[in-house]
């Protein structure tokens, strides 16, 4: 087989294959090649210059020895797929479920997660969003400290394990969204800069990529090839792109627009829909505007503003970035137009922020709505869920807004049964100095926000991972079953009545009390009424679903079956 690696500034590169070292030859574009007979399962690594330190392949698919060890030759054709008839799953009309393989089950593997997929089918989920599964240093972590973007984390089950998971999802009618991180690399095992000019500065989380400087064409190709590999070789249906606002890219053709065009071509070639979902802090509609309309062509983006408005309305918390969302009309405004900050003053940022969404142009499916996600739980000092702060009736009220509103709804694992387990920040870096730096940095960060350092869980303690793992036995308890029944019923209503999943923002009407104590969404012939305070909202017509603080009714009883 031919081993290849891009190292344009080096004068010598060797490849070590099963212990034997072979000189490589360089071409005009800075790629080095060597033909060495080696079957799948062979370990290999690269030696740069005259240094005998072996480094893994930047484009590795398999890292059985961790991010510092040798790569292993992987044969994609050797896996037997059973999803040949899978038609794909589009985002429009879907309900998304975010999960983390390492804490979704006590088994912490893809195979263990497969055993719980039927629960998601029964709930009414369409797309399973999996937090990053690329290789990172250590065994446990959120996945955002990955350094080998194409290699599947070995403790989860490696590349074959992820393929089994995707195949099992497709067999049950579930699409798969994979969370990928292109805005930075983790602090341990990031060797890319030894091979070539991959890095250009740093952001809040680590080294960023050289997307617009000299020799950046090949760096951008590194990202594009990685994205297409997940679609082509692992059969995923969508990518969730982490923190795209941190991509430093000044080119006339931005990387995201290029990624959108390439994804569209790959979807045509594969004959199934492929989706790109961005996380962006810019509140810029151009992110999700089609390329033909001078946008970046992302299919959707996360909507943190809606989360913040809901969270403040439920809990009354107004510290940090929640401050502006204490406005009585914050929730109603955000429901109508996706962004609360649409050119308005942001006290957290100390400046105006955002741009209005043209509700005539963009549908609600271009924005993901959620009551909880990994960031909004895990980046709280103690990782406490909303169910730890508000009574079940209020959680059900918020769930109705998310699941019956105009946006693409997303549920975070365990939310559907009001799981009592927190979801805390954790990592497992073997380097003791790095581990201590992360531990003390986390505690100091929250100490500045008024938390006692002793209250912040130790992210390096294995007990933190244990606490954050879902306890599936809770489904046998009445209170948890009742919340699960609420989520099932709401999703079933959404399925049964198209008006309750209508993505038209221009047709959405929202009534709200002057003090924000109640809210009613008009969804065609249906009304979704939610009470946050003491005053009850007006409810008319036949009631299809009702709890203490939420009711779904229709103004045309005879038309509903």
In a nutshell, what does this entry contain?
This protein is α/β, with parallel strands linked by helices. It is globular and about 80 Å long.
Description:
The chain is 26% helix and 20% strand. The strands form seven sheets. An eight-stranded parallel beta barrel has the order 9-10-13-16-17-18-21-22, surrounded by four helices. The termini are far apart. It has 14 helices and 27 strands. Helix 6 (216-234) runs parallel beside helix 7 (255-270), helix 8 (304-315) packs antiparallel against helix 9 and helix 11 runs parallel beside helix 14. It has two domains: 2-55, Immunoglobulin-like (Sandwich), CATH 2.60.40.10; 96-500, Glycosidases (TIM Barrel). With 561 residues, it is α/β, with parallel strands linked by helices.
Q: What fraction, in percent, of the residue positions are helical? A: 25-40%
CATH architecture of the largest domain: Alpha-Beta Barrel
Helices and strands: which structural class? alpha/beta
Gyration radius, rounded: 24 Å
Count of runs of 4 or more consecutive helical residues = 14
| Total strands | 27
Strand order of the main beta sheet, please? 9-10-13-16-17-18-21-22
Given as residue ranges, the uncertain stretches (5+ residues, pLDDT < 50) are none
What is the CATH top level name of the largest domain? Alpha Beta
| CATH topology annotation of the largest domain | TIM Barrel
* CATH homologous superfamily grouping of the largest domain: Glycosidases
Work out the strand percent: 15-25%
| Overall mean confidence score, pLDDT | 95
How far from one another are the termini? 63 Å
What number of domains? Answer: 2
- Biggest pleated-sheet summary: 8 strands, parallel, barrel
